[in-house]
Amino acid sequence: MRIGAPKEIKVREYRVGLTTDSAAELVRAGHEVFIETGAGLGVGLSDDDYVAIGAKILPDADSVFASADMIVKVKEPQAVEIARLRPHHLLFTYLHLAPDPDQAEALRRSGCTAIAYETVTDSRGRLPLLRPMSEVAGRMSVQVGAHYLEKTQGGRGLLLGGVPGVAPANVVILGGGVAGTHAAQMALGAHADVTVFDRSAERLGELDQIFNGMIKTAFSTGAAVEKAVAEADLVIGAVLVPGAAAPKLITRAMLKTMRPGAVLVDIAIDQGGCFETSRPTTHDDPVFVVDDVIHYCVANMPGAVARTSAFALNNATLPYALELAGKGAARALSDNPHLANGLNVADGEIAHAAVARDLNLPYQRPAWLVE
């Protein structure tokens, strides 16, 4: 198969869909790999590095899309990229369509087949291609939250871990999944006072064991979250409903109960955010303030640590890219129901039930997919 990786063009996005390691594996498997010039520079990979492993460098994105059958990216395609897609294209990337009807409609009109990293599953129902970026975002959430708690950034003027004789910051994490767990690890490592909320009693028990009772766990109800938020210095939203829009766990009314200079970090912003007042921001302009509460809602948080993120992502996506390239979409998805769960758009229709429900559009699996 002919596989292309264009340069990412979303604001401050430095990651690359195919590292040299991934490209080399695809070349070794007999595929042609096309890389847009400069696509890997943000993670320290030069055009010469790609040429050395057998990839071909093309001068622009138009050439990559025209030459490739499968397009491998990191972030959702921007409007100019969707305009390059044709019905023969297989798009493999993060999509996050549920809160983005414009992108969904444009992908439908393109006629391409689009597989979203974030809805591919494994045999235990987990999300293996979302996991590495959830790990990064979870760890980063504490790092950026601690920064914006500083008085010079408009925060409360707190050191996350306090010092002897001065209490640490109160960190509340909504969601005990991958991102929430990694956020808890970082917050606990900084000696903060950490509470994790989740709606699964089983998961709360697992977290208690993982952290040996060193964090607090709480069952997530509206009343419990409201009380905790009023006392929090840093709140991290790490709630995920696969394929669907994130639930709004913190309302505008709750902000009025929070301490001035408290910080909200919304990891779920790619899926619409889990705070009512959230809206996507960028690394150029990462925060805004509502009712004296700082909101950090950068939609591509892991892009700030591009090299770590790109290699972690490629470690997870490569086996699936090899499967798709080796078999083609129809056979690969028919043979692997977990990969088939990643199918979001096909034949001009929304092909994922949760995405279709949130977009209020018809749900239709393609006739060529044998399930």
- Mean pLDDT across all amino acids: 96
Beta percentage is: 15-25%
Query: Which class of the largest domain in CATH terms?
Result: Alpha Beta
Please tally the helical runs, counting DSSP H or I stretches of 4 or more residues.
14
Q: How far apart are the termini?
A: 24 Å
Q: Indicate the radius of gyration in whole angstroms.
A: 21 Å
Main sheet attributes: strand count, strand direction, barrel closure:
8 strands, mixed
- Taken in chain order, the helices and strands follow as EHEHEHEHEHEHEHEHEHEHEEEHHHEEH
Share of residues in helices: 25-40%
Q: Could you name the CATH homologous superfamily of the largest domain? A: NAD(P)-binding Rossmann-like Domain
The tally of structural domains comes to 2
Provide the structure class. Answer: alpha/beta
Instruction: Give the total of beta strands.
Output: 15
User: Low-confidence stretches at least 5 residues in length (pLDDT < 50)?
Assistant: none
CATH architecture of the largest domain: 3-Layer(aba) Sandwich
Shape: globular
